[in-house]
Amino acid sequence: MSGTAKIRLSRDHVLDLLGSMLRIRKFEDKCAELYTQEKIRGFLHLYDGEEAIAAGVIPHLHPEDRIVATYREHGHALARGVPMTSVMAEMYGKAAGCSGGRGGSMHLFDATHNFYGGNAIVGGGLPLAGGLGLADAMQRSGAVTACFFGEGAVAEGEFHETMNLAQLWHAPVLFVCENNGYAMGTALARSEAETNIHAKAASYGIASEVIDGMDVVAVESAARRALAAIRESARPYFLECRTYRFRAHSMFDAQLYRDKDEVENWRQKGPIVRFRDWALGAGMLHDHDLAALETRIDAEIAEAVDFAEAAEWEPVETLTRHALAEVRSAPTETAVPSGETVETTYREAVKQGIRDAMLRDDRVFLMGEDVGAYGGCYAVSKGLMEEFGEDRIRDTPLSESGFTGFGIGAAAAGMRPIVELMTVNFSLLALDQIMNTAATLRHMSGGQFGVPLVIRMATGAGKQLAAQHSHSLEGWYAHIPGLKVLAPATLEDARGMLWTALEDPDPVLIFENVMLYNLSGQIDAAAGPVDIDRAAIRRPGKDLTLITYGGSLYKTLEAAEALSAEGIEAEVIDLRVLRPLDDATIMASIGRTRRAVIVDEGWRSGSLAAEISARIVEQVFWRLDAPVGRVCSSEVPIPYPKHLEEAAIPQVPAIVAAARAALGKG
């Protein structure tokens, strides 16, 4: 064994290393058998051949250290100490599983062991791990996060964004690339111009090395060295472990991309065979030791199978558990009007909301593109870096997925990040992290981990910014379970919703319409937290209900004034909260007025307006005296010329016309 010269191996340690690898191998063999019996379903990715990496690295982590794994993570969970019974129950999808049966094979979580789960999105766990490390760096906890991933992940942008940010922000993360030579069925040489993966990390200035991932002693030696370096320098470290998986990518894989001789040749130099033969030859172990070891492991596996078989399924009645936190406390403070008002703008109200939060809670920090340099694209945070410093007002590179993922990881580690995405269009670059991690972490982990994160972004049209900076996509995000979606339109909401959102245990997205930043008016000097659960009636009326949000609120109020001059009294509802929608306020209003028009800057097809219209029909159809009307953006990318831009989005005349039509006066 190449690493024996660097580590003195006792008999007990040899037994531990071999036992750890054998335990993983035998567990996975049993899982493959159970898969053929249809006891385990879905995608099953086995770790067969790569056991030396988990066995060599994970035992050297401290209890407070964290682990982020990939979808081939059963070995990592077992090596970390997650009980085999709860891992097997999770493979079955039983309620007694380590993720409550919600995650399955690819999503094993265990908060007790700081095991932050497997991730089924290739490369998706890298920013999460970076964010956990960022939280440790900011909290000076001394903890390390270990992140395991395959070589296929290095082709993803999230890999490069994470490497850059981890080194830039000194995140104490051990990145472990399990290079098994194939990204599913594509050989590394066919997909990467540079096949020395450790060189990619080194190009970002990260300490990096390559090791034989089939030699458990070499892995252990490198892990000790890397972890010591991280704890001393508080900077990331990268290990490329060259290994090989003996089984298919998943149990669905026919393995047409490699022949049996190649696999067999690798099996002959597998980590268990190599270490076992060395230990026997060196007199460190004897045949009876191996027999006793296998007998013990077989008994543990049998117990785990019996446990999983006998475990209960979660009842269908609790299907929606863990989409959001079951308990949410009220804001720690309430607003007590001072009686004194001050003149301010929407922009300044948002800024003061951020400032209030940072003064109130030292876990709060803001990050985004140019948020410190000149206050972000819309100058919301101008001056805050001078007040709070670069640690809490963080300028980011142009890497939306990366820094959003870091925010998610930091939130999962107990921080309260505010992530600013410059425009809603740019948020699509971070959609993977928002939808596949922020919105799902609580559910997949069975409620063990939450993401108390706030993401702010500018939305809407009206500034002649053309098709790639002008859309209203908040309705898209309102489609995703696990998120809360806000659209503050008033000065009070702009300042106070942020306060409440930062105390929420779940991810909250706040959409700030670009046409509101210069809005000015009076606000109470002591304005505080604002409810983020209910819609608001901004104008009472009896003849019809106008439903809107965000930048369209003031156009709708103007339309209501015009209708009033004609003797039509429209009630105006400001949705404010787009997910979850406040059905009660909407339906109560329509119950009084019996007519409704929805004003939505999103496109008509598949819009938020369509969802609200469907709910109205489902819940109060028999109360309606007319079809539900909709005023939406035209089905066209937002054009640059001002007259065309104005024609593309809802305007007052169109709202008035729709209201008249609902009253039969069109």
Tell me the layout of helices and strands.
Elements: H1 11-36, H2 51-57, E1 66-68, H3 74-80, H4 84-92, H5 125-139, E2 145-150, H6 157-168, E3 173-179, E4 182-183, E5 186-187, H7 188-191, H8 197-202, E6 207-212, H9 216-233, E7 237-242, H10 260-267, H11 271-281, H12 287-310, E8 341-345, H13 346-360, E9 364-368, H14 384-388, E10 393-395, H15 400-412, E11 416-421, H16 431-438, H17 441-444, E12 454-459, H18 474-477, E13 484-486, H19 491-502, E14 508-513, E15 520-524, E16 536-539, E17 544-548, H20 553-565, E18 570-574, E19 577-579, H21 583-593, E20 596-603, H22 608-620, E21 629-633, H23 642-648, H24 652-662
Parallel strand pairs: 1-2, 2-3, 3-7, 6-7, 9-10, 9-11, 11-12, 12-14, 13-14, 17-18, 17-20, 20-21
Antiparallel strand pairs: 4-5, 8-15, 13-19, 16-18
Helix pairs in contact: 1-2, 1-3, 1-11, 1-12, 2-9, 4-12, 5-6, 5-15, 6-15, 13-19, 15-16, 20-24, 21-22
Please give a quick description of this structure.
The protein contains 24 helices and 21 strands.
The rounded distance between the terminal residues' Cα atoms is 86 Å
Largest sheet: 7 strands, mixed
Q: Could you say what the CATH architecture of the largest domain is?
A: 3-Layer(aba) Sandwich
Q: Please write the CATH class name of the largest domain.
A: Alpha Beta
Output the strand order for the largest sheet.
10-9-11-12-14-13-19
Number of strands: 21
